[in-house]
Amino acid sequence: MLSVNTNVGAMVALQYLNKTITDLQTTQSHINSGLKISSPKDNGAVYAIAQNMRGNVAGYAAVSDSLNRGSSTVDVAISAGQSISDLLNELKTKALAAADASLDTASRKAMNADFTALRDQITTIVQNASFNGVNLVDGTTANIQALASSDGTKKITVSGQTMKLSGTVVTLTSTGTISTTAKASTMIGTLNTSIQNVNAALAKLASGVKKFGIQSDFVTKLVDTLNAGIGNLVDADMAVESAKLQSLQVKQQLGVQALAIANASPSIVLSLFR
Q: Domain limits of the chain?
């Protein structure tokens, strides 16, 4: 039926053309953003999953920072412990030399002055072994905790190791000297105990920092896996989008031509009245 009031062919052609234009805009959006799902309108379920995974990635960024801070804090404590261990070995050497009864008074006095200077250096090291306001070797911090999960419920704990003078680890007192043969002889045993204790404390700190390192490596790999998963869900395949774009551009041109032909069909009615 030919009608000048209702052009069914033109309406159908326009519907197809509008659909093609909508698809073309969607494809162009995918190409511009690099995402096939950039909003809930594209696919609400997949978008929600991707957003949850992005939240986990953001959480693990905080976990990584926490682990790095914890690791640095323990590293400072280990450095302090190593320095204290070295000083104790030097002090032991001084004590062994001072235990020699044949040592003259002047030499003993000079040796004792060196001993007390090295002894006091331990206090200086302990007082300055802080990172981010946390000191694991002066007795002010019982332990340090770092985040281990993105929801904050899991944590890794490393205990502090007090290495100040007159403590349970360094049994050398702040007044200990080697001013006499007897004191020097007694000091040797004290220093042997302190050296063993410090080395044991260092082993505990090293075990703790290793836990931080293992978890940090795991978090890095986990974040990479999550990012890859997010990409699989929402990233656009540019090769596919490019082919689709060219196809839709051709369909758009054909649709415009089809609409033009359909719009011209009512003019045929004029020929019936000639």
A: 8-34+236-271, 59-233
Name every residue whose Cβ is closer than 8 Å to that of residue 164 and which is 6 or more positions away in sequence: 122, 123, 126, 137, 138, 139, 170
How far apart CA 20 and CA 111 sit, in angstroms, is 94
* pLDDT computed for residue 2 by the predictor: 63
- The angle formed by the CA atoms of residues 3, 5 and 6, to the nearest 5 degrees, is 75
Question: In this structure, what is the dihedral angle of CA atoms 107, 112, 118, 124, given to the nearest 10 degrees?
Answer: -140
Torsion angle (degrees, nearest 10) of CA 234, 235, 240, 246: 100
Q: Which residues of the chain have pLDDT under 50?
A: none
Whole-prediction pTM: 0.77
Distance CA 54, CA 227 (A): 8
Q: Which residues pair with 158 in a beta bridge?
A: 144
| Alpha helical stretches, state H, the chain | 8-33, 44-98, 105-127, 181-234, 238-264, 268-271
pLDDT at site 87:
97
Residues sharing a CB contact under 8 Å with residue 40, sequence separation 6 or more, in sequence order: 47, 48
Which DSSP category does 235 fall into? B
Within 10 Å of residue 5's Cβ, how many Cβ atoms?
Answer: 5
Tell me the fold of 59-233: f41 fragment of flagellin, N-terminal domain (1.20.1330)
